[in-house]
Write a structure and sequence with these properties.
single chain, 290 residues, alpha/beta, two-stranded antiparallel ribbon, nucleotidyltransferase, G1P_thy_trans_s, transferase, metal ion binding
């Protein structure tokens, strides 16, 4: 079976979060007790993906590399790709074409947080589909901010519309995309929209037109959070804080997933715990060993 590779799109200018993103990348901002990018990394890890391309702006790449290294501390391998200018989500597949080398992929946006019992099983199901694509629909109160799923009278997906003024449904497409090995080739056929961008919806429409796009609706038991506004950023941080304090379990912890997957040893986990010995993250990692 061909190994699926991961992409994290962590570029963009973050203008909606100015002035806090004027000095650093949005995806490096703290989300409660961890950098924001930890959360999409752990989603890909839960899907069993160990080779990940991280796409950043030229200005921010060194900061990401200082934080994340080569991924070896978590049993991963990171490849670094520069996004010269933010030209739309579909651009990621063009930038990562050499990295993907025809392999299927899972791309996640660097500012998205997913949480829910059964999330690994949901990811495993999407990962098992080697042909076509899988995206996830989530009911939101403000669908006009997202790509929206258009449903026909029988509840089947008939289209995906980018930021519609009059949304045809409340179901937004989340920032997580499982696509087959033809994604880069298809992205090369996407033309710029009226906004001047290579829209991910146009790429997904090519799969939908051939009847090979699966849309999984995420139910009530899941949370999907993005951090597009200052309020969203605060809400996501509070959500994580409440979960962790209530359950005494961490969210978005790459060391925990790597250890449970046996990608790192107990000795390697202990070294990470020692690194964070001055805070509760280190104590949590020590508890995992004991």
């Amino acid at each position: 079976m061909t190994q699926r590779k991961g992409i994290i799109l962590a570029g963009g200018s973050g203008t909606r979060l100015y002035p806090i993103t004027m000095g650093q990348s949005k995806q490096l901002l703290p989300l409660y007790d961890k950098p924001m990018i930890y959360y999409p990394i752990t989603v890909l890890m839960l899907a069993g993906i160990r080779e990940i391309a991280i796409i950043t702006t030229p200005e921010d790449q060194a900061q990401f590399q200082r934080l994340l290294g080569d991924g070896g501390q978590w049993g991963l391998r990171f490849e670094w790709i520069v996004q010269p200018s933010p030209d739309g989500l579909a651009q990621a597949y063009l930038l990562a074409e050499d990295f993907l080398a025809g392999n299927p992929s899972a791309m996640i946006l660097g500012d998205n947080v997913f949480f829910g019992h059964g999330l690994p099983q949901l990811l495993e199901s999407a990962n098992a589909r080697t042909d076509g694509g899988t995206v996830f629909g989530y009911r939101v109160s403000d669908p006009e901010r997202y790509g929206v799923i258009d449903l026909d009278d029988q509840g089947r997906v008939s289209g995906i519309i980018e930021k519609p003024a009059q949304p045809p449904s409340y179901y937004a497409v989340t920032g997580l995309y499982f696509l087959d090995g033809s994604a880069s080739q298809r992205a090369a056929q996407v033309t710029r929209s009226e906004r001047g961008e290579l829209e991910i919806t146009a790429l997904l429409e090519s799969y939908l037109a051939e009847g090979i796009l699966t849309v999984e609706k995420i139910g009530r038991g899941f949370a999907w959070l993005d951090t597009g506004t200052h309020a969203d950023l605060l809400d996501a941080g509070n959500f994580v804080r409440i979960l962790e304090n209530r359950q005494a379990m961490q969210t978005g912890c790459p060391e925990e997933i790597a250890y449970e997957n046996r990608w790192i040893s107990a000795e390697e986990l202990q070294a990470r715990a020692k690194l964070f010995s001055q805070n509760r993250h280190g104590a949590y990692l020590s508890e995992l060993i004991n």
